[in-house]
């Protein structure tokens, strides 16, 4: 009797794990970028760290990140990063480098595009 109950519970757990694994795999990449760390200055350059993460189900290739620095209503500088490969659940970090202080304007960092493998 207890063997039957244990087998049933195990079968339910294995089925749920399999369902979740298959269901997540069908989702497209969901890529987000954030710059939670503080900007720092060195040798007249301003470094803005970022973190990009793929929370979706599939891998993304050639992930393009775009940063735009707007000061007094005008885009004064842009930056671009290319992440070659970002698998499901993977995080990568980097930094954009500006010659003007991004804290004196409005900085926007966004995902521009990606490719499916």
Number of helices: 1
Mean pLDDT: 89
Largest pleated sheet: 4 strands, antiparallel
Please trace the helix and strand order, writing H or E for each element.
Answer: HEEEEEEE
Shape: elongated
In what range is the share of β-strand residues?
Answer: over 45%
Helix content: 10-25%
| Total E-strand runs | 7
Amino-to-carboxy terminus distance: 49 Å
| Computed structural class | alpha+beta
Radius of gyration, CA atoms, in whole angstroms: 21 Å
Show unreliable segments.
Answer: none
Short description:
With 117 residues, this protein is of the alpha+beta class. 21% of the residues lie in helices and 51% in strands.
Output the keywords.
117 residues, alpha+beta, four-stranded antiparallel sheet, three-stranded antiparallel sheet, 7 strands, 21% helix, elongated
Report on this model:
This protein has one helix at 2-25; strands at 31-34, 40-42, 45-54, 60-71, 74-86, 91-98, 106-115. 15% of the residues are buried. With 117 residues, the chain is an alpha+beta fold. The protein starts with a helix and ends with a strand. The protein contains 1 helix and 7 strands.
How would you summarize the topology of this molecule?
Elements: H1 2-25, E1 31-34, E2 40-42, E3 45-54, E4 60-71, E5 74-86, E6 91-98, E7 106-115
Antiparallel strand pairs: 1-3, 2-3, 3-6, 4-5, 4-7
